[in-house]
Amino acid sequence: MSLKDVEVRGRKIEAVLLLAIILASTPLIIGFSLLTLSSFSKHMVTNFDPNSFKFTLINWVRFLEGRMAITGGVRISVINIILNTLIVALGVAFVTTLIGTLAGYAISRMNFRYRKQLLLLLLLLHAFPGSVLIVGVYLIYIVTMPSNPEFIRYYSLFYVVIARAALEVPMAIWLMKGFFDLVPWEIEWAAIVDGASRIKVWWKVMLPLVKPGIAAIMLFGFLAGWQDLIYVRTFLQERTLATFIEANLEAEYSHMPLLAAVATFYLLPTIVFFVTSQKLLLKVTLAGVKR
Amino acid sequence: MVSIKLRNVTKRFGRVVAVDKISLDILDSEFFALLGPSGSGKSTILYLIAGIYKPTSGRIYFDQQDITDLPPKERNIGLVFQNWALYPHMKVYDNIAFPLRLKRLSEDNIYRKVVEVAKMLRINHLLDRYPWQLSGGQQQRVAIARALVKEPLVLLLDEPLSNLDALLRVSVRTELKRLQKSLGITTVYVTHDQAEALAMADRIAVINEGRVLQVGSPEEVYGKPSCRFVGGFLGNPPMNFIEASIERGREGVYLVINMDKVSVPKQYTNILSKLEIDRVVIGFRPEDIVIEKQCSPRDFCLHGEVYAVEPLGREYIVTIAIGEHMVKALTPRGQVFNVGEKVCVCPYSEKTILFDTKTEKSLEQLLVEKHGL
Question: Is B238 in the same domain as B366?
Fold first, then answer.
């Protein structure tokens, strides 16, 4: 064996690892490819049978026109559904990021009573899945619901954003605390001596240094809102893509390739985000900071 | 500029006492060094002056004004950290402009001041770069520029040179000293490097275990250490210490070391007569030694054996075993010694310091404390 750098792995190990990764991701890739293919086909593409694929754009056209039934002339406002999904997703992302960065900073950098207990409580909260909590969350919804039915539509949108974000917040706080912990105290002290208040230190000095963390929790928040089914279904009067697909799956006469088009569209943000932000998520460096 | 006064300042972190009832007077426009080993509390004192820490008890004054309860930004200080703590996401210009922007000065005004201070520190060609694009020395200048741009009353430096390489350190040392003198700004400088403190400071406070052991000019703390710790901490190689017992005979007072019996240095005969102690520690610096081949019995000389010889170019460090004590001596190049050779170590008796074995204080100090002189 020849001598090599410590950080270089052997060729054989590299090949084995690569093979394992490919094997593990094969089912996912096949599933997603079939779904995408089906959305461009007259019939569902199944059983790896090339004859079942007949190219057409009709599914996508119908989906974007909102004509979900093949026969009837019923139109649904797909734009509205996408808009609702975006509002929920962006709303959850915004609330999660705001609370995560503020609370993460406070827990990392400020000394107050019950700080440790709070951290443990957050961890505990994260351990509960959203479905377990839904009864309690529903109870609060009923109690706080406005009496005027006109407002309920807006209130449900607001409520679902807050409730869904609450599930993401514990993780976001933990993650941000970790990021803030990495910033040397001296940088913060320097800013305080330079005349900045704590909130200015947070905004002008700390936040720019934890950008990768912010990107991460924003992304997780967005995807959580985009993907959520159970909270949206329970509280929201409007439909989002998730509930829309779910409702159509249950319908008696649903045209599957059309649903495949909706589902492909529904999966797009997840893929796009993970591909584009890969580098950012891996980058946890604080350039120019000596520690 | 201002003078700084600390009165009975104590700082505790939980149960740990970091600073223990310290009182210091730092004069206007003075370059004052806080010197001590790591963990001695010297940086804590600096952060107390800066206002980053609040004293557990005691007061801090700038001139007559009690600033103990003022937040850092109202103290008008410039602070330079050991790791320089530049804002990594800002360019050099924005780093220096940051304190001015917080004061809401106009951009024209900010530009003028930043360029002025950048020129003074010769970093005006770097304003457009990010901190990570700079060398250590340049980053350090930026940190000093950021501290000075506010035109502070006090400049606080926390080991600013320890992240620089050895050669650069010596040249920055000189420049920093000149800068301080030309600005006339009251400066407190924290360091664990005794050479830095001796080279730069007007006065030095030696700190250990949260207490001030001695305050004085570099000559005073080096030449007249008030306790064994100060003598051992300053100088490289540090002061030599040898234990001796005191023998009070009819003809006078003698120090007995192993087989040797030498008369007490003249400056101590009077002091020793006023103190009732029978054991002392003799302290003398490596450069205050003459090594003879033969001992003349009447001189202040001790028998020893050469243990090691280390050539340093300009001079030699000769280590000599005297009984169980090791003594280091600096000798000029001409003298040649062989390992194992029997020699005679003769410290200059007038530069020798005697310390009390129990309290480790110098006998002068002990006398002052005992009689309140």
Answer: yes
- Cis check for the bond before B237: say yes or no (omega within 30 of 0): yes
Which residues from B are below 8 Å from A198, CB to CB?
Answer: none
Which residues form the domain of B285? 233-371
Any idea what the CATH number is for the domain that residue B321 is in? 2.40.50.140
Rounded Cα gap, residues B295 and B345, in angstroms: 8
Residue A8 C-alpha, separation from nearest chain B C-alpha, in angstroms: 27
Which residues in chain A are closer than 8 Å to B82, comparing Cβ atoms? 186
User: d(Cα A267, Cα A257) in Å, to the nearest integer?
Assistant: 15
Residues of A in contact with B132 (CB under 8 A): 287-288
CA distance A273 to chain B (A): 24
What is the dihedral sign for C-alpha A60, A61, A64, A67? negative
Residue type, A87: I
Residue-wise pLDDT for B127-167, tens only, equals: 999 999 999 889 999 999 999 999 999 999 999 988 888 88
Residues β-bridged to residue B14: none
Number of domains in chain B: 2
pLDDT surpasses 90 at B217: yes
Q: How far apart are CA B179 and CA B76, in angstroms?
A: 19
B232, B256, B272: which is the final residue of a domain?
B232
Task: Please tell me the predicted confidence (pLDDT) of residue B293.
Answer: 85
Average pLDDT, rounded, for chain B: 92
Q: What value of ipTM does the predicted structure carry?
A: 0.85
Domain boundary among B201, B232, B263: B232
pLDDT tens digits, one per residue of B312-352: 888 899 999 998 899 999 998 778 888 999 999 999 989 99
Question: B104 CB near a chain A CB, below 8 Å?
Answer: no
Which phi and psi (to 5°) does residue B103 adopt?
-85, 0
> Is domain A79-251+265-282 classified as CATH 1.10.3720.10?
yes
Q: How far apart are CA B145 and CA A210, in angstroms?
A: 26
CB A278 within 8 A of CB A212: no
Query: Which residues of chain A does CATH 1.10.3720.10 include?
Result: 79-251+265-282
CA nearest B156 in A: which residue?
A: A193
HEC string for A138-149? HHHHHHHCCCCH
Residue A126 CA to residue A131 CA, distance in Å, equals 12
Containing H/E element for B240? strand B240-248
Please give the order of strands across the beta sheet that includes B65-66.
B16-26, B4-13, B57-62, B65-66
Predicted confidence (pLDDT) per residue in B228-254, tens digit: 999 999 998 999 999 999 988 877 788
* pTM of this structure: 0.82
Across the range A52-57, mean pLDDT stands at: 81
Q: In CATH, what number is assigned to the domain containing residue B54?
A: 3.40.50.300
Q: Do B72 and A288 touch (CB under 8 A)?
A: no
Q: Given an 8 Å threshold on Cβ–Cβ distance, is B99 in contact with A195?
A: yes
Contacts of A45 by beta carbon, 8 Å cutoff, 6+ apart: A34, A37, A38, A52, A53
**C-alpha to C-alpha distances, A238 to A62, A64, A130, A148, B62, nearest whole angstrom:** 21, 18, 20, 17, 65
Judge if B311 and B259 occupy the same domain: yes
Q: Which long-range contacts (CB under 8 A, 24 or more apart) does A39-43 make?
A: A39/A257, A39/A260, A39/A261, A39/A263, A39/A264, A41/A257, A42/A257, A43/A257
